[in-house]
Write a structure and sequence with these properties.
Layout: E1 13-16, H1 24-34, E2 40-44, H2 51-58, E3 62-65, H3 70-84
Parallel strand pairs: 1-2, 2-3
């Protein structure tokens, strides 16, 4: 089945803080311009001073520290999805 993706095809975005071409904060800001209601989870191995403020500015809903286990990511996804419904 060939399904065409649209802005509404995604429920949550999970991104890394450090990527080769674009930082996770920048990606989050760009995604919020496209769809302001999309929940975003930022994954990182290192939390730095100012990250909380950057997350708030970028519209990131939650930060999750690496290494990530299945239960932790499942709980975090459920949490940000539930928060969006309020």
């Amino acid at each position: 089945m060939n399904r065409k993706c649209s802005k509404k095809s995604y429920d949550v975005i999970i991104t890394d803080k450090t990527m080769p071409m674009k930082a996770g904060f920048v990606l989050a800001q760009e995604m919020k311009l496209i769809r302001s209601d999309i929940p975003i989870i930022l994954c990182t191995g290192v939390k730095e001073n100012g990250d909380e403020e950057k997350c708030e500015t970028a519209g990131i809903n939650n930060i999750i520290m690496k290494p990530i286990n299945k239960q932790e990511i499942a709980i975090t996804i459920r949490k940000v999805l539930d928060e969006q419904r309020c």
